[in-house]
Amino acid sequence: MKKNIKELIICLAIPLAVGIVSGFLSGNAMEEFQTLNKPPLAPSAWLFPVVWTILYILMGVASYLIVRQGTETESVQKAISTYLLQLFFNFGWSIIFFNFGWRLFAFAWLMAMWALIIKTIMQFNPIDKTASYLMIPYLIWTTFAGYLNLGFFLLN
Asked: Is the pTM of this model over 0.90?
């Protein structure tokens, strides 16, 4: 039981740390967000950290459900590798978008991340269906983020 709690905490901490560090490195992202011309349906800035925190928790639980199946199996190793790769893309997006202001490149980066999320869901599914379902809100939000990103590119 102790091992399971430790694994769960680690699995939750990884995506939350990705979000915290990326947010920190993005500097005044929410202030910059306020200055941009926004596409229709763009939510208020306060919603982003709330949604991302929930999504990072869901990702952490999903990864825990996969890891607890045993990291010695090839399917789990591939699924976790893809999961970590999409987290790397997640980490880099806000830096590319806000720090560098490369809106079109950020959109392409986000589409690569989107594809990696789909691959993660597909790799999680045969291992643990619940884990794959927990990733679906993240895919939906990333789809919406793609719409916003493209809108910001076109309007700014």
From this structure: yes
